[in-house]
Amino acid sequence: MFPGSELCRGKLNLVISSWIYDCSIRDCSVDGGLFASLIVKNDRRLIRYIMTLIPRRDEAEEILQRTATALWENFGEYDTARDFYPWASRFAYFEVLKYRRDHARERLVFREDILQLVAETRDSMEDLLEHRREALLLCLGQIVAADVELLRRRYCSRESIAVLAQELGATAKSLYRRLDRIRERLADCVSRRVAAMSIEE
Amino acid sequence: MGGDIDSREHDQLFRQLLEGEMTDAEFAGLEQQLKEDPSLRSRYVQFVDLETCLQDELSHRAETSLTSPKVKPVWPWYLAAVVATAAGLLLAVNLFHKPEQVAIVPLPPLPVQQAPALYMAAPLQGLPVVAVVTALDGVTQPELRDRLEVGTRLKSGILKLTDGEVQLDFLGGARLLLSAPAELHMVSNSSATLVSGAAGVRVLHAQKNFVLNAPDVAVVDLGTEFAVRVDARQTQVHVYAGEVEISMLGDDGNTLISQRLAERGTMMVDPQSRLFTPLAAPTTPLPRVRAPVAADLVVTREYVQQVQQSKPYLYWRFDSMVDGVVPDESGNSFDAHVVAAPEDAGAIRIANGVLALAASSGPRSLVTVNPVPNFNSDDFSLELWVMPAELSQAVVLGVLLPNENPIPMHLNLIELAHNTALVHQPGVIRFLHRQPARRLGGFNLFSQDVCTPGTWTHVVATKAIDELKLYVNGQLIRTVSGPGTGARDDLSYNIMLGQLAPTNKDRQFNGLIDEVAVYRRVMPVEEISRHYWSIVRPSMSAASRPRNSSSIVASSSP
User: Fold this and answer.
1) Looking at CA atoms only, how far is residue A103 from chain B in angstroms?
2) Which residues of chain A does B44 touch, with a Cβ-Cβ cutoff of 8 Å?
3) Of A181, B90, B156, B438, which is most buried with the most CB atoms under 10 A?
4) Are A20 and A112 part of one and the same domain?
5) Both A154 and A60 in a single domain?
């Protein structure tokens, strides 16, 4: 479970709201609908980008909100003939750097040179990562419902491993092992499917 | 360095980072490896990305079941059938997938208390209201703050429903029924984004097209009624009447492919495969907007006695209409008659003791048979009950000069003010006094609260020589004082209900009107309050009181 993440997708609403706030001081009728649509369509992809740089859910969601605000403030400069995500991810990167400057003394925050290397690596892998996401959706359909539910409870609920283990009549250690095995099966499945996609192309 | 430990150990390290369970020394080591080993960076990115995808994907999935057979909670009796169904389902799943572990037998989740509906307005001063709640059904409400009631005005923001249904009248002229579980982002008075769940939309009188967006799809009404359901992967659109334009959106948020869907058509839209798939019918029932419940006014004997004791100069009760004539029950013979072409006469009628007005192709109104002489030669009060069927600019009562000029010359208006060129809250009551009677000018008094479709509202307007007052539901809302505010004259005026002018259908009122009374004096607030409560108090104490206490339940007039 990601530390501090009490609910999955918990702050998407605030991202949208951060745009809505501004609608009273700016004419949203022209491009507001387009912006909302683009944010709704890309926000999960942006959170994945941010998570690779700041791998803590709450902080990443906070940075996503700041990114959304920056995007709205600069939306007039967006060239609608181009893809939204590459343009938006640059803003996300700068928001990550700002966040890092403010939290440089905290634990487990990457150095700026590492952030740059990871961001460059990610940029070069976007197509692959999209294939992997699509493969994941298919692979989730192949594992038993109880395992999916176990993962869901682990990722999206407030319950600790100890509570889950007690509910299942298992030890925490055995539950960890079971979660690891499910994840490994998923990861293997994703790799196989992506390899198959490459062959088909 | 990255090759010193195998990939699974690296994954374990990445997981420690995600879970915040890494020592400073381990983190420094990881940074160094990431700097030096491009393949490790690639693996790290893939690992974190997959974990994030997994978390997001799982968050979309409804809770199913996860309990060990060793744990035996006390099951409510009604879950027995669910247990059997779930067990059968698991068996079927296992037969096909042959999982490595089948030790866990799923049981239905324990019943949990439903989360309340959540409305979250954007917390910024000055945002306009975009919609009004016009119906609620089966919604679990928050205990204290931000409760949704019929009449609640909503600004741009987010509405999440976990159960029940909420109907909203968007101020741009569309009515939307949101069916739980669902999440709706209200963007403006003519657009919203359905993030998940199902919604029905009927466009009532929009000045511009209503747009209902889904994450990858936009549905633009073309004068119509339609419904949309947004699932994790697909969007289903059904048209009840008229037609819509469905756009599948590209990465840039603009239309990539569009499709026109005609009446009674159903379309499955799959943005991933970029496919529009026509369906014979919706795969699951879709919501459809409802007209507000037309509750009759409970006119008590006490109310009628109160009015009669107040000695009205004109009193229309709408208990009967003979040959198109509504009698004046004040004894002063200011009867009213229907003015309408035969084909429009059906749009104005008496029903259950109230005047019911509907939209028509031509003008229709109820007008005094003879003008009221010296109407404005002294103080007066106007009293009535009104229940609009929709939010639109509509005249409830007008006092105007009796001439054949198609341009009406008004002394007074009581109207539902909505989307006008004036400055006021949407969907409120407006009282206008304009002396001398003419087309423009005069003093305006607006109420603050929305005159909600489906809800009866008591309105009293008083005019003294130097003061105008507006009362809504027994309370003084607005006073305008000063020399000339209530200027007088000795002319005769017609009193007209249901539209702005006799000869055209501008500002037609669609809804119900009852208990219209005119008094040749200024009613004091105590008297107005008495009138109001003599109807509302018995209704509130009735056993069958509605959920919305401001609504009034049906009953026959005495």
Assistant:
1) 15
2) 52, 118
3) B156
4) yes
5) no
